[in-house]
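hi!! sorry for the late reply, been swamped w classes. u asked for the two structures so here they r. pasted raw, havent cleaned anything up. first the sequence of the first protein and right below it the tokens
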Amino acid sequence: MAASALDVVRAWYRSGDPALLAPEIDWRVLDSFPAGGNYRGRDAVLDRFFPAVLARFAAYETMPESFHVAGGTIVATGRYRVRGLTGVAAEADFAHIWTVEEGSIVAFRQIADTAAIGAAIGAAIS
């Protein structure tokens, strides 16, 4: 039995398994988020986005709290829990919009409280 779109997204949050991302995924993060912008392709997400984000934090946790399903589109809401390199901690709300096709994540959109994230890393983000 094929995994549902929700199963795929939940598996990503649990494991971060690169195999869940389509080779040509369209990954979009708010420009005001650290390392924000558009990333095209699994390699760009894994080799450019995540290392750039994680380099700015001593701790970074994504905690989804609710999932809303509309076919292959999943909207997850939750909170980031972060600690900047200086030790400042923060929590920030997020909404993630995932598109899943044939068992792979083909698109991701992020909306987040960038002011709270900026406070943790000591940067004014607007």
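now the second protein. again sequence first, tokens right under
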Amino acid sequence: MPALANLLGIALVVAGTGLAAAAEQTAKIAVIVSRSSRVEHVSKDDLRELYLRRRRLWDHGERALPVNLPSGNPVRERFSRLVLGRSSEELVAYWNGRYFEGITPPAVLPTPAAVRAYVADEPNAIGYVPADEAGTDCRVLMVLE
């Protein structure tokens, strides 16, 4: 009987993990900038160009500073699929090719809190976090669903 209870417990943990992963795959993503940013709006096409570093300046002439979450992070993977049309793993070849042109990928910060703190402090930065973690120290430009 204890073995059955252990199996049931393991099944519940696995099911709970699956539900959490499914929730992360459908959670809303907030695209954020600093409250002092001069950027007022951004389109999905703009995001793609900024995050692929094909566009490196804002319309007002300042250098755009996109920041990513780490590769493998479910929010980054969802953002990459929604905006860039591919996973961060699929982008490795793209970035390898850009490296020889002197173009580097966006900076990577370890957590949504780190992204939010950096973006809040840097007027030319743009980032993304789970919508429920956008906080009040940044301005939300767009919500990806």
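hope this helps!! also noticed smth abt the second:
Residues 3-24 have pLDDT under 50 and may be disordered.
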